[in-house]
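Colleagues,

For the teaching module next term, I've prepared a clean inverse folding example: a structure given as tokens, and then the sequence designed for it. I'd like students to try predicting residues themselves before seeing the answer, so please don't circulate the second half yet.
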């Protein structure tokens, strides 16, 4: 019964995020808004961690299975991916370096 409650709370946040995303005048992922809503609800303790912990753990435990359909779908675009592989790798590495530099600089500024 607790898993049903956990999933219903997570699903309610997801659906609320998708509803807000549908109202926005620009494209934004509803799942991200839903995660932000869940974060705010947990931070303000309107939703207790016990209400979503077990369901979240179950989802995380089986997360690898959720990526199988995505990986199978990518196989249809192997030609497109192989043409832009250099650009994809360059973008990923430059993004990683940029994130590391910004986080490192922020950490240095926050230290007394």
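(Answer key — instructors only)
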């Amino acid at each position: 019964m607790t898993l049903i409650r956990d999933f219903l709370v997570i699903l309610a946040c997801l659906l609320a995020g998708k509803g807000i995303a549908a109202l926005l005048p620009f494209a934004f992922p509803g799942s991200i808004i839903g995660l932000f809503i869940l974060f705010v609800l947990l931070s303000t303790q309107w939703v207790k961690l016990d209400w979503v912990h077990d369901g979240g753990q179950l989802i995380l435990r089986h997360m690898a299975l959720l990526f199988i359909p995505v990986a199978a779908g990518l196989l249809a675009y192997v030609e497109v991916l192989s043409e832009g592989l250099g650009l994809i790798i360059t973008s990923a590495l430059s993004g990683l370096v940029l994130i590391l530099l910004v986080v490192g600089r922020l950490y240095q500024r926050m230290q007394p």
